[in-house]
Amino acid sequence: MTIKLNKKELLSNILGYPRIGKDRELKRALEAYWAGRTTREEIAATARQLRQENWTLMREAGIDLIPSNDFSYYDTVLDQALAVGAIPARYHALRDDKLNLYFAMAHGYQKDGEDVIAMEMTKWFDTNYHYIVPEFTRDQTFSYFDTKAVDEFNEAKALGIITKPVLIGPVSFLLLGKEKEEGFHRLDLLDRLLPVYARQLAELQKAGTQWVQIDEPFLVTDLDNRAREAFRRAYDYLAANSHPRLILTTYFGALGDNEDLALSLPVDAIHIDLVRGPEQINILKKFPKDKILSLGLIDGRNIWKNDLESSHQLAHQAICQLGYEHVFVATSCSLLHVPYDLEQEDDEQVLPQSIKRFLAFAKQKVEEVELLKGISKGIETDACLKAFVANKRDIAARQKSEEIHDLKVKERLQQIKAEDYNRHSDYAHRSKLQHDRLHLPLFPTTTIGSFPQTKEVRSWRAAYRKGKISKAEYIRLLQEETKRCVKWQEEAGIDVLVHGEFERNDMVEYFGEKLKGFTFTRKGWVQSYGSRCVKPPIIYGDVSRPKAMTVEWSRYAQSLTKRPMKGMLTGPVTILEWSFVRNDQPLSETCRQIALAIRDEVVDLERASIGVIQIDEPAIREGLPLRHAEWDGYLQWAVDCFRLTASGVKDETQIHTHMCYSEFNDIIEQIARMDADVITIECSRSQMELLDVFRQFRYPNEIGPGVYDIHSARVPSVGEMVALLRKAATLIPKERLWVNPDCGLKTRAWPETKAALTNMVAAAKTLRS
């Protein structure tokens, strides 16, 4: 740390910032607007305040390249679709009202005689964030339809802050979408799209933009020759038109065999993710002298404190090779994926100081970027040196912490045998025993687990947490709600019931609270999609199950009915993927620890006479590495972990699993290897397109393709569901076909839930007749 230089020469770069607000202000504003309780002016005011708070925080921290247009009411891919006029025909009647148009595209519209379904939604690469999938037709046209990027730049400029607008790059935008008819490839539309991007960049330049961050994350994936040529053509076209300086931004992995392609593109700077791809530092050997290298050194995906000494060594290496004026220090990706501010976590009972000292949220990561910039400049102020020494001390302390390691857990892992991964008999034998036990009709109906968590249910939880009601009163209230839920399901004619999960806050957090090796936050919210926020647990140490977690509630619910009651569990891969995971051991080892804990729960549910047990694994697909060469290794341990959870029960116990909003056609053989007796999947938004894989692959077990989209408030008709089921029945034998919604119903209201499920049962009865 002896380098000295002018402070202006090394820049810090933040790729994006959380947008929901430190107290989820955006969530509340949106949901109030959707419910008709507030006006569009009020949500606009909330959004403006959140943007200004973010920009001000980064400016005061000293950040040089502050992002704008990273804010979104729902999703930035949807924002870009609106910006370039990629609006499906079914929404054209709403084009004169951009806000209603935007939300209709996001989650459907059923009002004033209009009834249009939402656009498809899926996972953003290998994260738990969901994006709206652009739709393209062969005669697709584009236009400069929305000026949001320029408007937000001007908004910041009025505050005296010159921001760096963030855009989804043109090639990635097309690749993120889907062709809605045959006979063309979406990249064929590039030449029509590029003039609109050129116009957008020209408008930004006219407004005074100096830098634009143009995100092309597909450059860290496997690309064919068509995609490679699209990148060359796109950036040659943009280079031929006047525009601000461009930072070509990649993240979530290494450029790998796309490195030469990226380096050849006519842009001013290139960002690489050195957290996910540390080997990329070797790019220094051939990095062009006329470009700037943005080093993604601060982890934007996880909440662990950065090892500043290691990051400084990488930054120093780049500076020595390229010079200060050719290096940015940056976050690895947008900070969208981490909570707002660790300083809000002031409850020692929730997040102990012994673990908190090892963490950094978005605000702290901004400070880490700026501290790393100072260290790399050789600015040896007392505050800088003190922070550097404190960081080094915390990194060392975490490596030695006795809270993290449990020898009993490690020993049990070593005792796992090959037979522990297999059910006693194959599906053909198991299914006969299960059908004899359950006596289900053709096209059996069920739901995915949760039922509406009303304002009253949430108020009970809050009152209990604050000590305003006793544990006994809280349990009584939940039992009454469970009883009402079970009774309604019986009256509706649903065949396999669920207890509704009213005692659960979140499908991962609930289990994390009962497992050793987890800790939590009070305000560690991150956005999943739209107004949907989750508060991921933190896996800091070895995982084990001190006692049963769900048996008492499942036993109570089964006592209320003679129909089968599903025991509801979250699978090990999903718990892993939807938590902030320790980064000091392989993911596979942590996942096996969780699998053993869930296995113990499955066995205990069977002992409590629960004959149907669902182990949800919606995250298996999202955990896939972005490179195909790494898939086999991941799928081997991920599927093995699921099998480990399910293989301890008898043949007559029916094991279900659920997957949602994931394209799994390319891993269908591994999905089959999970050997769940029944798998339920999301299919309605894609109009059963996800089932096309079964034209070539004969899925051996039972399957429930979702017949309606629970993320939309619209209620589908009986005929609509019958049509989807008949389409499914052409691909799946009727004796193996289940009827269910796409996902859990926790976020829906009771009236729409009852109406939709009543129609669903009627659709199943129509098929039986």
Comma- or semicolon-separated keywords:
single chain, 769 residues, TIM Barrel, 25 helices, 13% strand
- Number of continuous helical runs: 25
Tell me the strand order in the biggest sheet.
1-14-13-12-11-10-8-2
Report the mean per-residue pLDDT as an integer. Answer: 93
User: What is the share of helical residues?
Assistant: 25-40%
Fraction of residues in β-strands = 5-15%
- Rg: 26 Å
Distance between the termini: 78 Å
CATH class of the largest domain: Alpha Beta
The CATH architecture term of the largest domain is: Alpha-Beta Barrel
Q: Return residue spans where pLDDT drops below 50 for at least 5 consecutive residues.
A: 1-8
Question: What fold name goes in the CATH topology slot of the largest domain?
Answer: TIM Barrel
Question: What's the structural blueprint in terms of helices and strands?
Answer:
Layout: E1 11-13, H1 25-34, H2 40-61, E2 67-68, H3 76-83, H4 98-107, E3 109-111, E4 114-116, E5 121-123, E6 130-132, E7 135-136, H5 148-158, E8 164-168, H6 170-176, E9 178-179, H7 190-207, E10 211-215, H8 225-239, E11 245-249, H9 259-264, E12 269-273, E13 292-298, H10 308-322, E14 327-331, H11 353-356, H12 362-377, H13 382-400, H14 407-414, H15 427-438, H16 455-465, H17 471-492, H18 509-512, E15 516-519, E16 526-529, E17 532-534, E18 538-544, H19 551-558, E19 566-570, H20 572-577, E20 580-581, H21 587-607, E21 612-616, H22 631-646, E22 654-659, H23 668-673, E23 678-681, E24 702-705, H24 718-729, H25 750-768
Parallel strand pairs: 1-14, 2-8, 7-9, 8-10, 10-11, 11-12, 12-13, 13-14, 18-20, 19-21, 21-22, 22-23, 23-24
Antiparallel strand pairs: 3-4, 5-6, 15-18, 16-17
Helix pairs in contact: 1-2, 5-7, 7-8, 10-12, 16-17, 21-22, 24-25
